[in-house]
Amino acid sequence: MGKHWELDDILARALQEEDPQRMDAVIARLVAEERLSRGAMLRRSAAAGVGLTILASPAAAFARSSSPLAAAPPLRGKAVGFATILKEAKREKRINTIALPPDWANYGEIMSTFQRRFGLSLTNDNPDASSAQENQAVRSLKGDPRAPDVLDVGPSFAILGANEGLYAKYFNRYFGTVPRAMKDGRGFWVGDYWGVVSFGVNRAVVSTVPRTWADLLKSEYKNRVALNGSPLSSGSAVAGVFSAAIGNGGSLNDIGPGIEFFKKLKDAGNFIPVQATPQTIASGQTPIVIDWDYLNLAYVKEFPSARIAVSIPSDGVYGAHYCQAINATAPHPWAARLWQEFLYSDAGQLLWLKGYSHPARFADMAKRKVIPAALLKALPSPAAYAKVRFASPGQLSRARTKIAAEWPKVVG
Q1: What is the pLDDT of residue 378?
Q2: Section 200-224 average pLDDT
Q3: Residue 73 near residue 341 (C-beta atoms within 8 A)
Q4: Within-domain flag for 1
């Protein structure tokens, strides 16, 4: 029997190091001391890899660099030593983030850990902003010191932002271990974490937990069902429509049945046009929320009196990821790159996993056996993810166009 380490102890010890690679080495050593179930890790790794292709082996070690200060931040993190990135980020003194709710995918702890470990101030503007609003902030605040340095947007909005020239190219040191389908080959954005669409149910209000999309049409769910935002501007809502499409005869190439399903749901009086928030699900205003599994799973502990149950619709298992991008005119460009280097280190990835999301490098970390057993046990069974489908950038783009044209007149 190996030594048991609590996750917080592992992270605390790793974060005593300043260089992310040394953090990773500490994590690997402590996790190796535990007796882990290789079978469990490989099963979940297989689920994470559905529809995704690993391009390369784990990233190379951070290079020590004594090179002179570069005139501008590097295109590739490996081009300079980590010490250089940290030194220049500290000169900038701060980083501006946007649209990171503290209770979303453990971002509260991620932000506080980043500030504490690297000594930078962090301003998180408009925590509940949509992906569309993030891109708009880059446009409208260009040249303003309040502009966001980094963004976390849905894939369809990442594609739009990259094509519009809103983002800077950057290949962090771990870029090669992020699956092919979760990154822009040009370096404009890179997937950070993924989840699947789920039903979060307040059992203090709803007695029977829906298990399929067809269930949601039942009369017992009248005035009970809500999305997290509108699919016209919210990536999570777009995912909800995709999942509904798959569960109602559609496909990744045909989101139309999903739009039609929400019309039926509205006509039945079950769909309420209220943007779901942690407060609305806890209070019972939106007792059934269609949202990411990692958000609904977090509510289980956050709102014990609501007795939240989480169901992944068996007839429409749809997964999607979010994307990290750097503002092309970021007021703190070195801090923005430091942010990415931290997020994609093993320590950063474990912080996302602690928030019940699957980090982009999950399969790589599972293969190297550096995920603490407690984190694996906290997630639903890998069987729930066995049929997960991921849309390609092209499918996302076409779906977004169709939603923009049809949702206002069909659903309203």
Answers
A1: 83
A2: 97
A3: no
A4: no
Cα 13 from Cα 2, distance rounded (Å) = 18
DSSP 311: E
Read off the CATH number of the domain in which 401 is found. 3.40.190.10
pLDDT at 376: 86
Per the structure, the complete domain to which residue 87 belongs is given by: 7-194+320-383
Do residues 303 and 269 share a domain? yes
Same domain, 245 and 339: no
The answer to whether the CB of 339 falls within 8 A of the CB of 114 is yes
Within 13 Å of residue 182, how many CA atoms lie on the same side as its CB?
A: 32
Distance CA 171, CA 188 (A): 8
Residue count (the chain): 412
Minimal CA–CA distance to 78: which of 93, 89, 91, 67? 67
Number of domains in the chain: 2
What are 245-260's pLDDT values in tens digits?
999 999 999 999 999 9
Do 106 and 83 fall into the same domain? yes
Beta strands in 133-280 (DSSP E): 150-153, 167-168, 189-201, 225-227
